[in-house]
């Protein structure tokens, strides 16, 4: 039986390709670290995210669930994290209806999970980067998509990688179900940007929200929450 698993706290993309320093997708991808206190102890959650403005990051909302004590984002140079943290000043969550699918099995899975995204406003903008433009939901989905994710390496945000995705299904609300090609997405890649090609660079369709897998924490079937539901106004 397949399980639906939020991808968010450890491990990186298995396979895929190391991010290039000149890749527009990689240059707009960041690591998101959130400190939460669900009880007497503190816990650190790590995810991926995408710059949609110099001071705005789009990620998966479950990466900042609860009442976080604090959150920061780190940009990357190629596949390596830059030691320059940008604190999160505010966050806004955006939920959406997943829509309908012809496949009964996939439709049942959609009903079992909560799909949403979050926009993080930074205290200081990330300089020298070109944020990703949001795709128009009316645009045609190509035969392949690109995913970027940072995962983990030891106790710090890990190596930035990219992977190719093949779309399998698209709902009327913009949710995409896709399969990874030559790679597997793992927890830590949650919130990672998924882009389609545009005339002047990649366009952000959405962020990785959940993975369908018979064995956590990695899998090759992804649910991609659409970026169009998120307003850049907090």
UniProtKB/TrEMBL annotation:
Gene3D superfamilies referenced in this protein's UniProt entry, alphabetically: Trypsin-like serine proteases (2.40.10.10)
Peptidase S1 domain span: 13-219
Keywords per UniProt: Disulfide bond, Hydrolase, Protease
InterPro entries noted in UniProt: Peptidase_S1_PA, Peptidase_S1_PA_chymotrypsin, Peptidase_S1A, Trypsin_dom, TRYPSIN_HIS
Pfam families: Trypsin
Swiss-Prot/TrEMBL GO biological process terms: proteolysis
Entry GO MF terms: serine-type endopeptidase activity
Keyword set includes Protease: yes
Protein name: Secreted trypsin-like serine protease
Species: Microvirga flocculans
């Amino acid at each position: 039986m397949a399980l639906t698993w939020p991808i968010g706290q450890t491990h990186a993309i298995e396979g895929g390709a190391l991010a290039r320093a000149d890749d527009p997708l990689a240059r707009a991808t960041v690591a998101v670290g959130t400190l939460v206190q669900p009880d007497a102890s503190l816990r650190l959650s790590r995810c991926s995210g995408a710059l949609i403005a110099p001071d705005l990051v789009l990620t998966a909302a479950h990466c900042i669930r609860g009442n976080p004590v604090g959150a920061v984002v780190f940009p990357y140079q190629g596949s390596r994290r830059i030691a320059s943290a940008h604190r999160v000043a505010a966050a806004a969550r955006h939920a959406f209806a997943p829509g309908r699918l012809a496949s009964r099995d996939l439709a049942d899975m959609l009903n079992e999970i909560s799909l949403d995204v979050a926009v993080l406003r930074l205290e200081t903008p990330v300089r020298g980067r070109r944020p990703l433009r949001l795709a128009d939901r009316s645009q045609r989905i190509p035969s392949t998509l690109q995913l970027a994710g940072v995962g983990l390496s030891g106790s710090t945000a890990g190596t930035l990688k990219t992977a190719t995705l093949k779309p399998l299904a698209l709902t009327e609300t913009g949710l995409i179900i896709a399969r990874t090609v030559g790679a597997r997405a793992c927890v830590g890649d949650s919130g990672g940007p998924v882009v389609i090609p545009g005339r002047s660079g990649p366009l952000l369709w959405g962020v990785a929200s959940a993975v369908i897998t018979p064995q956590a924490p990695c899998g090759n079937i992804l649910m991609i929450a659409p970026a169009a539901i998120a307003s850049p106004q907090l």
